[in-house]
UniProtKB/TrEMBL annotation:
Keywords: 2Fe-2S, Iron, Iron-sulfur, Metal-binding, Oxidoreductase. Residues 8-84 form the 2Fe-2S ferredoxin-type domain. InterPro entries: 2Fe-2S-bd, 2Fe-2S-bd_dom_sf, 2Fe-2S_ferredoxin-like_sf, 2Fe-2S_ferredoxin-type, 2Fe2S_fd_BS, Beta-grasp_dom_sf, Diverse_Oxidoreductases. This is Ferredoxin. Pfam families: Fer2 (PF00111), Fer2_2 (PF01799). One of its GO terms (molecular function) is 2 iron, 2 sulfur cluster binding. PROSITE patterns: 2FE2S_FER_1, 2FE2S_FER_2. The lineage of its organism: Bacteria, Pseudomonadati, Pseudomonadota, Gammaproteobacteria, Pseudomonadales. It comes from the Bacteria.
Length: 165
């Protein structure tokens, strides 16, 4: 005999748009975003809170989407890297700085790192190197290491210089 799982209705705002979804208690936010809502920048990596590639903003704080159950996001505000870029001049400056200073970052880590860096700059417009390293320490990156990300965030910070074209 097969048992059907109970579905829960959840409403939240995703990248500025209202969402209403049915979720079961076992689905992660990462799965919901990438597999069902087609947001490819919320990547699946370790699936256990080790790598950071699934990082999204939940109610203004960066979280690992693989560690958040979809059922928990009722009435919340969720933003992915894509959503942060819309009409956000500071975020666009950060994106340009990543393009200029973090050239070897592959597409696996980039969206999650942008979310974490954006959250940091929201709290500390001119962070120190140590604060930047702490903010991105939850991202394990095989290709690039943290140095170029630190340079990019410094360039995008208040007082930093970043090319505009
Ligand atoms: S997939 Fe979420 S932290 Fe690795
Ligand atoms: S930039 Fe490629 S694994 Fe991190």
């Amino acid at each position: 005999m097969t048992q059907s799982r109970k579905l829960l209705k959840r409403k939240f705002t995703l990248n500025g748009q209202p969402q209403e979804v049915d979720v079961d208690g076992h689905e992660t936010l990462q799965h919901l975003l990438q597999e069902r809502l087609q947001l490819s920048e919320c990547r699946r990596g370790c699936d256990r809170g080790d790598c950071g590639v699934c990082t999204v903003m939940l109610d203004g704080q960066p979280v690992y989407a693989c560690l958040v159950m979809a059922a928990e996001v009722d009435q919340s505000i969720v933003e992915t890297a894509q959503g942060l870029s819309a009409a956000n001049a500071k975020y666009q400056r950060l994106q340009r700085a990543f393009q200029e200073h973090a050239l070897t970052l592959c597409h696996l880590c980039r969206p999650g790192l942008l979310v974490s860096a954006s959250a940091l700059l929201g709290e500390r417009p001119a962070p120190s190197q140590e604060q930047i390293r702490a903010a991105i320490s939850g991202h394990l990156c095989r290709c690039s290491g943290p140095d170029q990300v630190v340079r990019a965030v410094l360039a995008a910070a208040d007082g930093g210089k970043v090319e505009t074209s």
